Structure formats: C-alpha cells, structure tokens
C-alpha cells in the first residue's frame, strides 16, 4: 500500500518524536504540510495495545501567517503531551503552492497562511480553501489510516481541539459545528466574533461572499452558540487572552462571545481568563499551555 | 543617573518577564543586545530583600548564528527559572553593527554571530571581538549596577553558566578560565576541542593568529583542564550531546575532552551523556533544559 504521508523529518524531542510530514489533500487540491508529535507513551514498548489504552489526540490550530513549525518550536506542547500521554497534531493554516492557489501577496491576513478554517464558497477560492473539511475530516482520517494502523493511536474518536488567534476561532467554531466530535475545546486569544471584526470580515467576505451572511453565521462562534445545543453538563471552553494583546479590542473581542452566550445553553460555559500583561505571542501561549494541557487531559480521560 | 540599558521589550511569560535590552559596551565598542528573564520570584512582593535571598543568575551562551532571541523563544528556560528561582541572561554571540565591525559576510561560522567568546588579538578584530571580557566581566557588572540596585538580584557572586555548541565551548572555557567564579557549568553539544576542529581552527586562526598556539591553549577546554586545578570535590560539568547531531564527529568531539581530562584533576568530572537520536536543534536543547536547570539549581543553593 503506498504511503499517504512523506516524512521530511523525524526529530527526537522530549520523550517522543516530532514528525514533519507532507501529503496530498483531496480537499485543498494541494500538497499539505502537517507536523505531529507522538509522545513518549507511543514509544513505550511495554504499553499494551488494547483499545482502551489508545493514545488520544489534541489538534492545535495556528494563527495567521503560521505554518506547522511555529507552534512546534515555540508553544512547547511536547513536555505536556508526554506528561499526560496525548498526540499533538499541528496542521498548516491554509493550502500552499504556487500561483495556481489564489492568494493576495500584499495581505498577510488573507489567502495563504490565512485559510480561516472554513470551506470557501466563492468561485475563486472554493477549489482550494477548504480548511474546514481538511482539518476536521480529511486530515484525521488520513492520519488514522497511516499512523493508527498499529492500534495504538486514536486521531478520530478521542480527540480535543485548541488553537491560537485565527486558530482559536477555528477551534471554537469547529468544536461547536461538530458538537460531540471533540471531547474538549480551548483557545488562546481567539477571534471570538469574526463577523464584526476586520480580519474576520475580510476573510468571510472573500471566501464566503460579502452578502452571504447566512454562511458567515455557520462559522461565527457568536452565532453558533445560539443554534448548537450544549447537552453535556461538563462542557466548558477554556480561553486565555492577555490584557496587553495588541489585537484584543480590534479583532479578538472575547466580551462579545460572553454576551452572545447569555441566555443560551452555553451561558457560563466559556471560561474566559483575561490575564494581566500578556501579549499575543508564543511567550503568552507557552505560559498557559500547561493549564490547557491539563484541561484537555481530563476531558480525554487521561486524568 | 543615566540608564545603562534601553528596554526594547518587556514581555510577560511564565510567571516573570523577559526583557529585551540594548546597551553600549566598552569592550566591543558597539551597541550590544542582551535578553534577561527575571523569574516570578523577582516579582513576588512578599519576598524579603535580605542578602541571603538574592536571586542567582544562569548565563546561557548561544551557538553560531544565534542572537539573544533564539534561546529565549525555543530553549524554554523560563519555566525552569520560575521553578527554582534564578535569572537567565542570554547574551549575543558577537558584536554587531555596520561595516565598521569586521565580518566575513560569506561565512556564517566566523565574524558576526560567531564571536567565539574570546578576546581577539589579531589587529583587524582586536577592537571589537572581545566577547570573553564582555560576557564574563563587563556584562555581569553592568547588569548588577542597573538591575541589582534594589538588592534582589545577584548577577556576579552566585552565578552559573551553560551554553550550546559554540556557546557550550564558551561556557566550559569560561568556567575553567575563571575557576571559582561560576558555581557550576553545563553544556549542550559543546565544541570540546576547538583547536583541532574546523569551526575552532578558523575562528582561533582569525581572531588569535594562526601561529599563536599559546593563545589557543588559553581558550581550549582540552588544554585548560591540564592547567586549571579542580579543587572542589563536587565539581562536575554536565554535558548532553545527541547521537544524531550532524556536527558530532566533525566539530564537537566530546571524546577528546574526556581523553584530555584523564590524569588531570578533572578526570571523571565531565559527565558526558550521549543521548540516542537527538540532533543539534532547540528540540534537543529544550528536552534537556529541565535536567540542566536542576543541576544548576543545586549548585546555586536553590535546592
């Protein structure tokens, strides 16, 4: 059977290995990069290969301009993944490639590096910008086929999701739209209400159509909380945002998500922590990764 | 009193702050960049300001091509600094600046980014390339003057040193040449015998003179172990090197340091750990930072 993934690098770090992979995506019609960290538990030969002990997965969605490498190098999930025993998957933030993939080279907040984790409907972008189906469906399925075949890794059934900035929006949006598919969701400095802020309006307009507000509502967390029912008493979305985040008031707007959830089944379930002095960088993310890791570990049955 | 350091950024991370600083150096005759991480203990207002509780310092010397930022972002010392309560100082790897500072723009392993932690004697480089006196004397003194003035931080008396690759050589060399000045020394993938390997020969030749072997011996750990007496029974230099380090056999050569120390007062005091599968990257460094942090914390009296 031909391999789905090409391994470009296999890097020993902490107790496990970081694999830098490339593969063809039917969704995006392009080659895609993805990094995965397999924790030390995966390499522990004494571990029994029974269904109950399969290693669960945390998906980390990166922010604007990032590749799978930024968080792999700077967020420092690896130590936590080893502590609790979960795989971490770092997808790319958009399709890549040459001029055949439409882009705006003058705008880092749209196009390549800014796929916004949705399925584009506008004709120009609809063929490639399908990051929603790619991240939530195709990628987990392909990873399961290739890396799950030995029965030790679970990329599909026992999984959680987190992300930063655009990826924080992507995590919350994907968690709500696929309610029940992820055991838990958290976010670092997420774009909470993309329909009303600059980055979101630009991407929603270009990918979904400026007058197609019905489509916008299908991705905006502030709309999704009104139509997706939280049926699990333990639902909680853990969020951290720094008070010195330069994008806090213009693009992130966590207070709008808090307001939107009022009177819905999600009221009180967004645990939004505004943390003094922190900015938007990986220095901020890495600081709160241990707390988010513990949160997900609990929901994944690891604690 | 005019400030010595200009603070270009003050970044909240973990429980403390990373300060990105610039200052004028008399040693190098240039402006220098340096990052320092002040741990959470520094910001703990309940901490008593008595001499005994001064926060000690770990100096981290980076490798070829690095600036103070690489390790600040990727080595992840901050969490460990908070755990034990020490400051981390990340100096630059050379003087910087325009054409007034001599360089070889076609060679990343010499000149800017490759100061080799020595005082150059060759006329072309002697005015600026004085990283030895800068790192071991001027910088600690300036930091103490400005940041130590409130009596909480100790950059001079209770300090340890570590480093990576060229910086690993710099740490060992500086520790031995200033025997007694540092409480402990460790290194990640150090260049152990610069006088006999490519990177070292090039830098020693250009900075010290190709026929000035007496000067080379003053910096090479394999020569220093023969003239510096270890008088402390607890002396131990902790070293990790990855078996998949691409520079292991050509430039690092830890076995030569082990051999050189035989029959000297340092015999058995280099704890060299060859670790399976690890490479030369920050993925390797960050993996062993917790072990090195604990090692230094013990020697700094924090455990």
Automatic annotation (TrEMBL), chains A, B:
GO molecular function annotation: carboxylic ester hydrolase activity; S-formylglutathione hydrolase activity
Keyword Hydrolase: yes
Residues the record marks as active site: 165, 245, 280
Keywords: Hydrolase, Serine esterase
Chain ranges passing through the membrane: none
Gene Ontology terms describing biological process: formaldehyde catabolic process
Listed EC numbers: 3.1.2.12
GO CC annotation: cytosol
Keyword Hydrolase part of the UniProt annotation: yes
Family: Belongs to the esterase D family.
Name by which UniProt lists this protein: S-formylglutathione hydrolase
């Amino acid at each position: 059977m031909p391999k789905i993934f090409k391994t470009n690098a296999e890097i020993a770090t902490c107790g496990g290995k970081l694999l830098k992979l490339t593969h063809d995506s039917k969704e995006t019609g392009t080659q895609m990069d993805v990094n995965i960290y397999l924790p030390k538990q995966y390499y522990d030969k004494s571990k029994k290969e029974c269904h109950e002990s399969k290693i669960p997965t945390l998906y980390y969605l990166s922010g604007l301009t990032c590749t799978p490498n930024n968080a792999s190098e700077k967020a420092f999930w690896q130590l936590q993944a080893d502590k609790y025993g979960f795989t971490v998957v770092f997808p790319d933030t958009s399709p890549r490639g040459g001029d055949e993939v439409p882009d705006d080279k003058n705008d880092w907040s749209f196009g390549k590096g800014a796929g916004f984790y949705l399925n584009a409907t506008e004709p120009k972008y609809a063929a490639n910008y399908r990051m929603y189906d790619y991240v939530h469906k195709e990628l987990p399925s392909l990873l399961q086929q290739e890396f799950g075949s030995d029965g030790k890794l679970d990329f599909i059934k026992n999984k959680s999701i987190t992300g930063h900035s655009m990826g924080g929006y992507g995590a919350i949006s994907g968690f709500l739209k696929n309610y029940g598919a992820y055991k838990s969701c958290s976010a670092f400095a997420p774009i909470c209400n993309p329909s009303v802020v600059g980055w979101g309006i630009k991407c929603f307009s270009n990918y979904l159509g400026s007058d197609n507000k019905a489509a916008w509502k299908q991705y905006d967390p502030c709309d999704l909380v009104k139509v997706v029912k939280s049926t699990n008493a333990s639902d909680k979305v853990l969020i951290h945002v720094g008070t010195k985040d330069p994008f806090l008031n213009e693009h992130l707007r966590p207070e709008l998500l808090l307001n939107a959830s009022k009177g819905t089944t999600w009221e009180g379930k967004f645990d939004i922590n505004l943390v003094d002095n922190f900015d938007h960088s990986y220095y901020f993310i890495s600081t709160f990764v241990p707390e988010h890791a513990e949160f997900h570990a609990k929901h994944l049955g690891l604690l």
